[in-house]
Amino acid sequence: MGKSVAILMTTYNGERYLSQQLDSIRSQTFTNWTLFIRDDGSKDKTIEVIQRYSKIDDRIRLVENPSKFHGAYYNFFNLIEYVKNNYQFDYYFFCDQDDIWKEHKLEIQLLRFSKDDMPEMVYSDMSTIDASNKLIDISINKIMGIELPNINNLYFIHAYIWGCTAGFNHALLEMVPSVDIDKDYLYIEKLSHDNYFAKFALEYGKVLFCPEQLVLYRRHGHNVTTSHHFKLSPLNVFRKAILGFNELALTHARVYNQTLYMLKKASGKNPLSDRLLEIQEVIKIGGLKGVRYFYQNRISRKQLVRTIGLYTIMLFGTYKKYIMKELL
262: exposed, middle or buried (C-beta count within 10 Å: 0-12, 13-18, 19+)? Predict the structure, then answer.
């Protein structure tokens, strides 16, 4: 039997764009997939759209959501656990409700995986479109440099692996520690599922990049990642860094909190490697030790002014007041 794929999508008030995404999934050249959709209490006609599609295509399934925790990340982690506990597929792909997949997306990414017995994640470049499907940028990689330059960057910067482009194999799903939402709900509210999985893939397997633009990522005022500014002039970035220094420190702290949480979960399975212990120490201490680590490991952003901000926040330790003490 051929490869099997589970597509994991969460929805919330996605009526406006959902049909376009579902149509793009149904148009995939690779056809042996099952789409699991978990809604988070939509107030519009999202459920009606899902039910309509599930009637004409039995590969599309609506998953019940009895959780008391609501939000994009809670919903995704709950969906991951549901699929993990009830099904087994060869590969799993994250999916946003408002994007559009190129018809060869699954086919191309599946060919990129190398060894089925090694935990692997594959992600791709993407284009951006507006609310009317008008092309904004043909390649996010050219603008932001999302092809991971070195593995250490991901522990300090979340600008590379976008969940809407990412897929992973069963080996990675099995080795990533399950998230206890009832116990760890304070951490999970801001815990990016894609970067959580990516860090485990980096440490214990591989992360592979497809240079093709396989997703049309829709930028509008309601999606979770709209806050990412793809095109910022050096002057605007500098102004943002100066006027919003505390906000910048908070942004960095959120990334560091996610890294510390990943390290906490990883240490529950096996002793941390020396490399991970050093990363943990850098976040705890910061200052010159952190700057030295950044320099020695060539941790940087595509834009010089962003790199300066990264080093400045680490040097002065302004992120520390936002670090969750329970993770230290």
Answer: buried
Domain assignments of the chain as residue spans, ordered by start: 5-227, 234-327
CATH 3.90.550.10 fits 5-227, yes or no: yes
3-state secondary structure of 11: strand
For the stretch 280-290, pLDDT in tens is 999 999 999 99
pTM of the model: 0.92
What is the pLDDT, as a whole number, of residue 67? 85
Helix residue ranges per DSSP H, the chain: 15-26, 46-56, 72-86, 105-112, 140-144, 170-175, 181-188, 193-204, 234-243, 245-267, 274-285, 287-296, 304-316
Structure token digits, residue 205? 């397997």
CA nearest neighbour of 159 among 169, 172, 171, 149: 149
**pLDDT at residue 303, as a whole number:** 84
- Which residue stretches of the chain have pLDDT < 50? 226-229
